[in-house]
């Protein structure tokens, strides 16, 4: 015992320091170990979230591609068929051409001139109106299905777990979905009368200085078509043409219902109108219209030899022959294919579906 006490007195300080160090080291080891486990758990959690987000991104890409296919194979064919029928019904050029054909030798010069002038206005109205309607309706439907598709995807993707990609949105009622898609027929029904009237006014404004014996070349015809489109689009209030494509927001809300402003259909219509009145959509629409106008004039040139020049009166019947090309079924419509393949159009709808700011 004396030996132990002596050893203790002699080495007490060293023993206390050593014990303290050992205790502190053990405590630090435990803290480090716990911290390491926490880091490992956090890394696994982040890895799972990244994997979950990658799954969502992959599925959104697949869903986006599917949405574009649905627009091309289901929604657009129905709307185009309806539009084509309405254009033929509302702008009847054949009756004037029949009168001119059957009245040869019977019509007095003033009657004949009047009919030819009517044919001039109606032919250009039908041509530019068809071009505008097909172009804008195809873009509008693609806006619709991308907005609806993204909403539906987000509603159903929540089962994958929380993610920053998923916003808090109300589920879309089946009736609201059908009403929203059916609104694509607004142009062919409610919007058509005022559209025809306003387009005809633009045609008259641009053609008032052109005589039936004037010679038109490919360049002049293309400039004329673009001028009509410019006058039509710029006349009236900004984005006035949206009212031809879709109903006003006021008509989508049942004011007698206290929850009217919360209607999903109303939200979808509002979101669609916001897209259509954006600068980005206006740019895409202008690019699409110009590309289609160039393609149309090239088609007329191929059929008529327009490059060498042709009298306006002789050109009018040739214009009529190209009309079925503009409103052809989507799978045979070169203008719709042209719009679909434009890089600006592809980028616009990719960003719209992803809901990224532009």
Description:
This protein is mainly alpha-helical and 358 residues long. It is 76% helix and 1% strand. It is built from 12 helices and 2 strands, in the order αααααβααααβααα. The protein has helices spanning 2-90, 94-102, 109-157, 174-182, 187-207, 218-234, 242-245, 264-276, 279-304, 312-326, 334-341, 343-354, and strands at 215-216, 310-311. α3 (109-157) packs parallel to α10 (312-326). The model is unreliable at 165-169 (pLDDT under 50).
Q: DSSP strand (E) fraction?
A: under 5%
Name the shape in a single word.
elongated
Q: How many strand elements?
A: 2
Order of helices and strands: HHHHHEHHHHEHHH
Q: What is the C-alpha radius of gyration, as a whole number of Å?
A: 34 Å
Query: How many helix segments?
Result: 12
Point out poorly predicted stretches. Answer: 165-169
Question: What is the distance, rounded to the nearest whole angstrom, between the alpha carbons of the first and last residues?
Answer: 87 Å
| Class from secondary-structure proportions | mainly alpha
Oligomer: single chain
Strand order in the largest sheet: 1-2
The whole-number mean of residue pLDDT values reads 81
The helix fraction, in percent, is over 70%
Specify the biggest β-sheet.
2 strands, antiparallel
């Amino acid at each position: 015992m004396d030996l132990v006490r002596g050893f203790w007195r002699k080495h007490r300080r060293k023993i206390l320091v050593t014990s303290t160090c050992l205790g502190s080291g053990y405590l630090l080891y435990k803290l480090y170990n716990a911290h390491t486990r926490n880091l490992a758990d956090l890394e696994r959690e982040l890895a799972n979230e990244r994997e979950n987000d990658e799954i969502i991104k992959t599925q959104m890409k697949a869903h986006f591609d599917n949405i574009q296919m649905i627009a091309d194979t289901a929604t657009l064919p129905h709307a185009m068929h309806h539009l084509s029928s309405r254009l033929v019904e509302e702008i009847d050029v054949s009756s004037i051409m029949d009168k001119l054909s059957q009245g040869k030798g019977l019509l007095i010069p003033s009657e004949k001139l009047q009919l030819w002038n009517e044919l001039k206005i109606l032919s250009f109205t039908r041509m530019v109106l068809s071009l505008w309607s097909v172009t804008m309706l195809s873009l509008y439907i693609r806006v619709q299905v991308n907005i609806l598709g993204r909403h539906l995807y987000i509603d159903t993707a929540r089962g994958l777990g929380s993610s920053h990609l998923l916003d808090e949105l109300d589920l879309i009622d089946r009736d609201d979905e059908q009403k929203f898609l059916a609104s694509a027929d607004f142009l062919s029904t409610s919007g058509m009368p005022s559209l025809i009237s306003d387009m005809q006014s633009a045609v008259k404004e641009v053609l008032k200085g052109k005589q039936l014996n004037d010679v038109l070349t490919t360049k002049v015809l293309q400039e004329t078509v673009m001028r009509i489109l410019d006058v039509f689009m710029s006349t009236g209030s900004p984005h006035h043409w949206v009212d031809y494509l879709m109903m006003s927001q006021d008509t989508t809300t049942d004011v007698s219902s206290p929850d009217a402003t919360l209607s999903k259909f109303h939200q979808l219509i509002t979101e669609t109108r916001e897209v259509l009145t954006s600068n980005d959509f206006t740019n895409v629409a202008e690019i699409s219209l110009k590309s289609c106008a160039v393609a149309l004039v090239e088609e007329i040139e191929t059929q008529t030899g327009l490059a060498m020049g042709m009298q306006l009166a002789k050109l009018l019947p040739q214009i009529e022959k190209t009309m079925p090309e503009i409103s052809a079924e989507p799978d045979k419509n070169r203008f719709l294919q042209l719009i679909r393949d434009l890089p600006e159009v592809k980028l616009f709808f990719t960003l719209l579906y992803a809901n990224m700011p532009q």
